[in-house]
Amino acid sequence: MTLASVLFVAMHALVRDLSKDLHPFQIAFFRASLGLIVLSPIIFKNRFAILRTSKIKLHALRGLLNAGAMLCFFYGLSITPLAQVTALSFAVPLFATLFAVLLLGEIIKIRRITALLIGFLGTLVIIRPGLIDFGLGPILILSQAIIWSLALMVIKVLTRTDSSLTIAIYASIFLSPMVLIAAIPVWQSPTVYQLILMLIIATFGTIAQTLMNESLKLGETSVVMPVEFTRMIWAALFGYCFFSEVPDIFTWFGSVLIFGSTAYIAVRENKLNKEKENNSAD
Questions:
Q1: What is the mean pLDDT of residues 28-46?
Q2: The model scores a pTM over 0.85
Q3: What's the domain count of the chain?
Q4: What residue numbers bound the domain in which 228 lies?
């Protein structure tokens, strides 16, 4: 999870730097398409068997939601301080928990409701609507969190029938042409150097996602989740070194509230799942 956190923030820093010369929508397209290239050896190794699915429409819906989330995130990342982006991105589990109740019929009790409220309070602390200018950047990052949370609901349904690799591959297959539609109006020919950077971005993103999934598989949630908060440290460090950005106290305090609430929800969920497994074993 520590390695995943470093790679995620490094990828975001590269996107932010590259967006000075290329439109974020074009960078998003290369992130999606080159990500498919990174996964292609797995496709060929399995002789395309991994592409078998009975849920192609759900994969297309996930791709559409993923495209919207990526476009919002990459554009927001280009105009928002790196630490603020990282802090606001911690809100994804909060929205995902809320949508799980509204769309999937999951039941939550007072502890998780309290954690949700604390997380939303942390979001308000960071953006401080009415007290400071609530710019386009934070709006796009929060929009990304909401759209991606909806995508997570689709992914949760897909995991009942398809493997995580099948889901990841179809995400790139549908994501690439959808993002390309947005990138065409702002297209400009990238240099070889820019292509290399975008390949690094795609590689970092793919490896980071794999490492994060593997960490949650191998380690206790209560141990793994708090490590993700190191993303704030890396974001503050990268933001200061490369963009002369210094996160204010509200960003740090808000991110602690958001991450604390999401970590509690994750740990609580893990504990309840273990109790269910123990009860079923008895």
A1: 82
A2: no
A3: 1
A4: 2-281
